[in-house]
Design a protein that fits this description.
Length: about 250
């Protein structure tokens, strides 16, 4: 009789690594319940060499009637699914048009943020609020702070991040039902040139004082009369009463 071939056994460390890289069915089941935006990518950006008809046929082969499909500058596809079942189908896919495929949740589009306000929240830490609301889909908590002279004072207003694309109308904090309002972030204003729409790290313009709107110096130590760099009225560029600031906020 011939010798029996020995069954190859991977080292424990390598076996564990392979297990970690295999998609977990349970994980996909959990993620697909809330994820609706996915990124589809293939090696070497090979989708750029495929016709749109072939790509659509490949998508339909996984699940038909996606809500939307958009090609990104990177060459990847941004997919919007219509249900948890459709998200699960794409997250479970291993190949696309005979190519190995990676389909992952979009990093930001699957979350939404809302604001809650209640005096009772003043007596709860952010950690306690997160622990108490995690079962309601809250994954991050940030309290809104205000300044009074040199002191930073916590407020009763808290920004909640939900692991969902749909903002709930209310949450239950202990025994209290609290209405959830959409969170509208303040307009992005450059601290260098004072204009809206970009940050100082990307700014190539000259330094403008946020107090008097003059060139060549910053806010610190400015003794001139207030003058807004955006609307040219008698207030600082950081004022929330500025017509330009209000207009930018409405565009959010």
């Amino acid at each position: 009789m011939g010798k029996k071939s020995k069954k190859s056994v991977l080292p424990t460390e390598q076996t564990d690594t392979l297990k970690e890289n295999l998609p977990s069915t349970r994980t996909v089941d959990v993620i697909s319940k809330t994820v609706r935006f996915l990124i589809l990518s293939v090696p070497n950006n090979n989708l750029s060499k495929k016709s749109p008809f072939a790509i659509q046929k490949g998508l339909d082969g996984i699940s038909k009637n996606l809500k939307s499909v958009k090609k990104l500058a990177s060459g990847d596809l941004l997919l919007e699914t219509g249900s948890a079942l459709q998200s699960k189908a794409f997250l479970s896919a291993k190949t696309f048009l005979d190519l190995p495929v990676t389909i992952t949740p979009h990093k930001t589009l699957n979350f939404c943020r809302g604001v809650v306000s209640n005096d009772g929240l003043l007596f709860s830490s952010d950690e306690e609020i997160l622990e108490g609301l995690s079962s309601q889909g809250v994954v991050n908590v940030r309290r809104i702070l205000t300044r009074k002279r040199t002191a930073t004072i916590p407020t009763k207003h808290v920004i909640l991040t939900f692991s969902s694309t749909v903002l709930p109308s209310s949450i239950k904090a202990g025994y209290i039902n609290i209405r959830v309002r959409p969170y509208i972030p303040y307009p992005l204003r450059c601290f260098k040139c004072q204009k809206f729409g970009h940050s100082q790290t990307a700014c190539r313009r000259k330094q403008i004082c946020s107090s008097c709107a003059s060139e060549g110096h910053s806010y610190s130590g400015c003794q001139s009369k207030p003058n807004c760099a955006n609307c040219h009225q008698a207030h600082e560029s950081a004022s929330k009463f500025c017509p330009k600031w209000i207009q930018e906020k409405k565009l959010k």
